[in-house]
Amino acid sequence: MEHLKQAGLRLPREAWKPRLPHAEGLPFLKLHRICPGTDDSDRPLRLPIGTVASLRACVATAVAAHREDRLQAWDSTDCLSVLRSIAMLSSLESETRELRAPQNRKDFFQGLCQGLWSAVSEQLASTPDAEDHEGFWDGSLQRLVALHVSGLAFVDQTVTSERSEVNRVSASILSEPEPPAGTARAGTLQVVRGPIPTASNKEDAETIRIYKPLLIPQPVASMPSPQEVDAVLDALAQEFPWATNVVSELGSMMKARSLFGVRELCLSPVLIVGYPGSGKSRFVRRLAEHLKLPYLPLALGGRTDSKLLSGTSRGWAGGEPTPLLRLMLQHKSASGMVLLDEIDKVGETNSNGAPAASLLLGFLEPETAARWHDGFLQATCNFTRLTFWATANSLKSMPAALLSRFTVLYMPEPRPEDMAVLVKGITDDIAREWRLPLEVLPLPPRSMYEGARLNARELRRMVMQFLSDWATENLRPERLH
């Protein structure tokens, strides 16, 4: 800013109030002269070369910190310096040739700074004084910069009748931000639509601070290409040869979306019905792993407390938002696979909470999922990019309204000829749980299970017993030496 002062220029303090220019029709980040003259008032005001160099050095420092994963050590002053630098370089004319033309500034912002802004603003939202700088991290200022470089906002409004139309177009564009650089196939989604009311309780206020990054648009998983869809289906067909109908239905869902050019990954709700131990839950987990989706299993069997789904309201000890938001926060993604395990065994909800079935209806219906109200944050949340799959042993106790939200698929029991494949999959799962390479654990001999009709749970117990016996026999210290 010292370079600006030396050049006799300044930015008014209200320029950094992101809602002010749009609401009152004021110009966005307009340079002013410290001492206005009479002979040069019509000359365009541009960023001096020295100021541009300082601002670009600030942005370059942030790029390096982001690449080396050092942004989490930055305080609010560091973050604000970078965001102001991005806004000024993208929005103001410069005396340097490379950032003088509007198209050059647009390329600079969309090619580098859009994604960098998201990363820096996320760090800013986690700082102790984040509430003082909400416009910088909640997407307001970022959207105004994106709108400005697009050439659709803050034009010379010389005709009064044009002003309302410009504001109408601006509002429609501001409703959804542009995706960050490097995510051409995947968009973004603002999971929590603020503002989040403040809390008087210290613990509640700290929890709110932790969840504030979800006010920033989060990445949405991209739909795999047709070739990638085939690869996922082939892998699942090899792991679950007895579940050909489930794999086939999944293929119909994904191939149609992929071939029609759907960009964002989100599958319809599916309920897999089958006997205990037929591999229903494992199928959903492996699907999430193949699609690289964050995975959240919710064990609903016998639960009478709806807090597992809704979280806890403010004021209660240990209160927190719905675990769906925790999944998004931990993985920094608006997408995910949620397993509603044993949904047919949900117990009667006690008098202190809403019926679990009614809560599930809210998650499974797109209209309500897009406007779901979280009781702890006291804000509207958007869960439309989450995929909800469920498992059940029977449909007898399922409410008709809840059942109608799902595509119901039957999972057969594994056949005797499927035992070898199932044992290999279970052994690989154990290796992943133990964080070991897949080839480290030995496979049980076929003689232990050949010809038997064992479900997945019984086979897992058999594999665990085999691994225990094998390790005792072969990995004892006296045998290793």
Structure description:
It comes from Hydrogenophaga palleronii. InterPro entries: AAA+_ATPase, ATPase_AAA_core, Lon_Prtase, P-loop_NTPase. The chain has a five-stranded parallel beta sheet, with helices on both faces. Strands 4-10-9 form a three-stranded antiparallel beta sheet, with no helix packed on it. The chain starts with a helix and ends with a helix. Helices cover 45% and strands 9% of the residues. The relative contact order is 0.08. About 10% of the residues have low confidence. The protein folds into three domains: 181 residues, no CATH class; 185 residues, P-loop containing nucleotide triphosphate hydrolases (Rossmann fold); 65 residues, no CATH class. A hairpin with a 4-residue loop joins β9 and β10. α4 packs antiparallel against α5 and α10 packs antiparallel against α11. By secondary structure, the protein is an alpha/beta fold.
For the record, what is the CATH homologous superfamily label of the largest domain? P-loop containing nucleotide triphosphate hydrolases
Shape: elongated
* Rg estimate, integer Å: 28 Å
In angstroms, what separates the terminal alpha carbons? Answer: 70 Å
Number of DSSP helical runs: 20
Calculate the mean pLDDT score and round it.
Answer: 79
Number of domains: 3
Q: Do you know the CATH topology of the largest domain?
A: Rossmann fold
Query: What's the architecture of the largest domain in CATH terms?
Result: 3-Layer(aba) Sandwich
Protein name: AAA+ ATPase domain-containing protein
Pfam families: AAA
Domain AAA+ ATPase: 266-417
